[in-house]
TrEMBL record:
Keywords: Membrane, Transmembrane, Transmembrane helix. The keyword Membrane applies. It comes from the Bacteria. This is DUF3301 domain-containing protein. The chain crosses the membrane at residues 6-25.
Length: 107
C-alpha cells in the first residue's frame, strides 16, 4: 500500500503544479491582451496610424498587481513619442524631441 500512496502523492503534486502553471499562463495572457488593447486605444486617441516601437519596457509587480509600461515610438512622419501606462490608469502618449528619445534609447 505504501508505494501506491507515494505514487498518488506524486500524481497529485504534478497535477496541482500543472493546473497552477496553466492558471498563471492564462493570467499573463489576459494581462498582455489588456496592455495591448490600451496601447491601441491610446494610439487612436492621438491619431497615430503607423508607428515603430523602438523601446518596450514592461514591469509587472507580481502579487501587487502593479504593471508599468514604457514605450518609445517613432511614427511614419519621423516624430518620437513616449507612451506610459501604469496599472488601471489610461495610457498617455507624449511627443518627444529626437534628442530625448535617443537619450532614453541609450540607457
Amino acid at each position: 500500500m505504501e508505494p501506491y500512496k507515494a505514487l498518488l502523492q506524486l500524481l497529485f503534486i504534478v497535477l496541482l503544479s500543472g493546473w497552477l502553471a496553466r492558471l498563471a499562463w492564462r493570467r499573463m495572457r489576459k494581462l498582455n491582451d489588456a496592455i495591448d488593447s490600451e496601447f491601441e486605444a491610446a494610439l487612436r486617441r492621438n491619431n497615430i496610424v503607423s508607428h515603430e516601437v523602438l523601446l518596450d519596457r514592461t514591469s509587472r509587480g507580481g502579487g501587487q498587481g502593479l504593471t508599468q509600461v514604457h514605450r518609445i515610438l517613432l511614427d511614419d512622419n519621423g516624430q518620437y513619442y513616449l507612451y506610459v501606462h501604469i496599472s488601471d490608469s489610461p495610457g498617455v502618449i507624449k511627443a518627444l524631441s529626437q534628442e530625448r528619445a535617443l537619450l532614453a534609447l541609450a540607457k
